[in-house]
């Protein structure tokens, strides 16, 4: 099967799967992140990184 | 106290060892936590980065998110060469191995059921784009300067109409392609169309779908997608994969699938 060239996977395609797919474990575990949050975070992070060509003012500090 | 457990996937036990030099999230090699008939694949991650608070903060950091996503994918990819993994969502973290085991214990039956459903299957991603406004007519023959208000409105209507037609055509194309591909797939999921700013892809994403296909039938599936590729001017089809069955890892029963 040589049909598909293995280019580097685009981050958006990966995030579609890692942030909206996969088994969501809820229950009595120590940590969990609501899926809604993750998707929102993903978009915020991406949009701000695309829009802000300037370095974040928080860079380097915490 | 050796940190928290970041869980990538749950699998049936597999005989073949993972590549020795494989590293996961935070550079930690993936380790196996067996429980009954299942194995969780985990990395030890520092509490300073992966406890709830820091994790939330880190997820706002694109570079950090990218590194974790790529590492997660790397481990899942390695697993697909030796078994059929059931990937967990990014950022699933437990306090310790016993927390991981209790989680498996609690969900054992559903994990086994899902693993049976996914055994020997892979996921293919298919996206359809409407190419950015090419308006070939306009380029070939610039519209004459409108002689009157009525002329202007007529020209404008025509332009809008041709845009609508193109959109309509892309919609029809995507719907038909989706139906065709569903025939060759065991299951499908529609992801939200991708924002062009984020994907960097040109054109407008009208279909962003995932298809669950037996590995053995993948070649046929790919050919089927390829055959549609050059069909319609102004429309672009993109294929990604094979992926582990991320989009199909959710349980079928109970609540509706995401999206």
TrEMBL record, chain A:
**The keyword Thylakoid appears for this protein:** no
Q: Superkingdom of this entry's organism?
A: Bacteria
Q: Where in the cell is it found?
A: Gas vesicle
User: What span is annotated as the signal peptide, if there is one?
Assistant: none
Record carries keyword Iron: no
Keywords from the named record: Gas vesicle
Identify its protein family.
Belongs to the gas vesicle GvpA family.
Q: What is the designated name of this protein?
A: Gas vesicle protein
Give the originating organism.
Answer: Streptomyces marokkonensis
